[in-house]
UniProtKB/TrEMBL annotation:
Residues 1-26 form the signal peptide. It holds the Pfam family SpoIIE. Residues 73-82 have a biased composition (Polar residues). Residues 72-92 are annotated as: Disordered. The keyword RNA-binding does not apply. This is Serine/threonine protein phosphatase.
Length: 709
């Protein structure tokens, strides 16, 4: 190309940082010629960056006349008619606006302030070619222009031409065919009125139709490729977050990729093919672009496990305001005048502080990074630099295309590699653990086999011993049953019955009845040895032998208890015995009661009244010397004497509640009319019903006598 881009002074960039000001307007050039390009096929296509710029009054110039070109000689044959008919219009325009044409670039005109908001901005550029190339159909690639634009073409002998397909304003990137086969054509690019910054996202490209098609497809495929990869990254990291919701940074990174996948095609103008409306660019180009730093910050603090500091919260709040501003202003005013002049430059300044805060997080929390610090920081710095460069390009600084999406793809790759490295380390640790576990399992299997053999041997030995023990217990049970009264004495004026239910096959409860016909005296004895099983049964057997023929002591029950204590001196081995002894003179009904720490003796009167008797006396224990007292009570015909062991009142139900002496007395009272045999059955059945499934808690013994008079 013949005309090169003008370079912006470095001072303009510094002003953006310090004051939020945009670049200055290029100096005007009086009497200049329209910039031109000598088109050659072997050097095609051409990026047209330098144009002659002018501002025209309201109205679509394509619907009137092709404007007089800046610097055009009014005396030239090609312009005499134009100058003659419209010189007054041109003079009026320049008088109203005071505008002199100057060199400008369509992609860098956003800071130019038009004289009127409803005027159009027009760029002129001529394309020249040799006669040998006239058979080649020229075309132009028109980039995305948010305000909407037309492309007009003027050729020799033609005053004006509306290019087919350009009859309506459009903002989308597109291909425009140049419908002239002349050696020189002049392109007129018109940007339509817009209340805010007006520019093209990049400079137009001129070349053959096939070349422009290639340019168009490359740009479209580039956007499609990056958006597709970012959509894929969104689904990938969203899936990882669903599997590991504790890693919040995966969600932030997924949303960041989703936002970029939407923002990038909107920023490049390709969303206009879906909805050709300024709202598409406002929402997804401006608002969503201002929201990206918020997601970037969330991802950063998530990776470094950093708290939300005060500067970060303030910056997030400001970015939220800048996210809302473009859509709100466009919805109210229909333009972006204030956003372009004020908010956008504020956004640049805030972005500087945002990256400073990000660098602080990198340095302050570098040792707490969840993933590889080197890889993650490299990607984050790459994104930070490219994001800032993108914003500067968006503001008109720099001629190259923004590469924020490429940097984010780099971050995604580095982040994925770091994540893969993390999982690889976890998998290696798991494999190592599995190896150790396998070795331990093999060792354990060997030990289990050895132990199993030992257990089987011990089990067989225990089964054998169990059989022997069961046989011994059976014999012991038979022996103990032999200690119980086989046949109760038949007495004319008394009826006796008892029940005995050991907890195991053998127990420690003992009861006995003796009758002396010579004195008409009846003795009732009930005892309880602490413990259960064999030891208690052996002591109960010894107690039975100690009683012997105790008829000689029927007249003095307390002496019999003292005799038992003396016989067990040094033989109890920590056990103790409770007992109750009752003697009854069947001729008179006089009854003597002695107690050694045993539950009360109950006298159930014929009318249902229950009386409790417990003379003073402690349990038989070799370490406690004691004496026993005797208490006397008179029986009437129909009265009953009830002796029992503590297994009856101490029985519990499934809720842990005790049966107790109150329930026992109520049960006796309700069944006082029954004979001893039935009364015993009623008491045992009542206790078992109360226990429910919680059976066989202790040995139970019950002895009942009814005095007939």
């Amino acid at each position: 190309m013949k005309i090169k881009n003008q370079k912006k002074p470095i001072v303009s960039l510094l002003l953006v940082f310090l004051l939020g000001c945009g670049p200055s307007r290029p100096s005007s050039i009086i009497g200049m010629e329209t910039p031109s390009t000598n088109w050659e096929q072997d050097k095609s296509p051409y990026i047209i960056s330098n144009w002659a710029f002018s501002e025209i009054p309201p109205g679509n110039f394509f619907h009137g006349h092709f404007p007089v070109l800046p610097g055009q000689d009014s005396g030239s044959p090609s312009s005499q008619n134009t100058h003659k008919n419209h010189s007054q219009s041109r003079e009026a325009r320049e008088a109203d606006y005071g505008i002199e044409p100057f060199l400008a670039t369509p992609s860098d005109i956003s800071n130019y302030n038009p004289k009127r908001k409803d005027s159009s901005l027009v760029f002129f550029h001529s394309v020249k070619r040799s006669k040998n190339d006239l058979d080649i159909l020229l075309s132009a690639y028109i980039p995305f222009c948010p305000s909407g634009c037309y492309l007009g073409v003027k050729s020799e002998g033609k005053e004006q031409m509306i290019v087919p397909g350009e009859s309506e304003d459009s903002s989308k990137p597109r291909i425009v065919v140049i419908p002239f086969q002349n050696e020189e054509v002049t392109l007129a690019l018109q940007l339509f009125p817009f209340n805010g910054p007006r520019n093209m996202m990049e400079n137009p490209v001129v070349g053959s139709f096939s070349e422009i098609q290639t340019v168009y497809l490359v740009k479209a495929l580039r956007v499609l490729l990056f958006s597709s990869l970012e959509f894929f990254s969104f689904f990938f990291f969203a899936f990882i977050y669903i599997r590991r919701p504790q890693d919040k940074f995966n969600l932030s990174f997924a949303l960041l990729n989703l936002s970029l996948a939407i923002w990038y095609p909107a920023y490049e103008g390709w969303f206009q093919y879906i909805v050709d409306s300024p709202w598409t660019w406002v929402i997804f180009g401006y608002s969503l672009g201002a929201f990206l730093p918020i997601l970037f910050y969330e991802f950063t603090i998530g990776i470094f496990q950093a708290p939300r500091n005060v500067p970060g919260r303030i910056l997030q709040f400001l970015f939220v305001l800048l996210t809302i501003w473009p859509s709100l202003e466009y919805g109210i005013t229909g333009g972006h005048q204030y956003f372009g002049k004020i908010a956008f430059h504020i956004f640049l300044v805030i972005l500087v502080f945002f990256y400073m805060n990000t660098l602080y997080i990198f340095f302050r929390y570098r040792w707490s990074s969840i993933l590889s610090f080197r890889w993650v920081v490299t990607g984050l710095i790459l994104v930070a630099v490219s994001s800032f460069y993108t914003v500067m390009s968006f503001a008109g600084f720099g001629s190259a295309q923004p590469w924020v999406n490429e940097s984010f793809l780099g971050l995604t790759l580095l982040f994925s590699l770091a994540l893969a490295k993390r999982y690889a380390e976890v998998f290696r640790a798991l494999e190592k653990s599995e190896g150790k576990l396998k070795s331990l399992n093999e060792s354990l299997e060997t030990k289990v086999e050895e132990r199993t053999k030992i257990i089987e041997f011990q089990k067989a030995e225990l089964v054998q011993k169990g059989r022997i023990l069961a046989k011994d217990l059976s014999i012991a049970g038979k022996i103990q049953n032999a200690l119980l009264p086989r046949e109760l004495p038949v007495i004319p004026n008394a009826r006796i019955s008892y029940r005995y239910k050991p907890m195991m096959e053998i127990g420690g409860d003992l009861l006995d009845v003796i009758y002396d016909p010579s004195t008409s005296s009846l003795g009732m004895f009930i005892g309880d040895v602490t413990g259960h099983g064999v030891s208690a049964a052996l002591l109960a057997s010894m107690l039975k032998m100690t009683l012997g023929d105790w008829s000689i002591l029927l007249q003095d029950p307390s002496s019999l208890l003292l005799h038992i204590r003396n016989q067990f001196e040094g033989k109890l081995d920590g056990h103790f015995i409770t007992a109750t002894l009752v003697t009854i003179d069947l001729r008179s009904g006089k009854t003597l009661i002695a107690n050694a720490g045993h539950p009360e003796c109950l006298v159930l009167r014929k009318g249902g009244v229950v009386e409790f008797y417990r003379p003073k006396g402690v349990a038989i224990y070799e370490a406690i010397p004691t004496t026993y007292q005797t208490e006397s009570v008179d029986l009437s015909p129909g009265d009953k004497v009830v002796l029992y062991t503590d297994g009856i009142p101490d029985s519990r139900n499934t809720e842990g509640e005790f049966f107790g002496e109150d329930r026992l007395s109520d049960l006796l009272r309700k069944n006082s009319f029954r004979p001893p045999e039935e009364l015993c059955d009623s008491v045992i059945h009542g206790v078992q019903s109360f226990q429910g499934e919680f059976q066989n808690q202790d040995d139970m013994a019950l002895l009942v006598l009814e005095y007939l008079g």
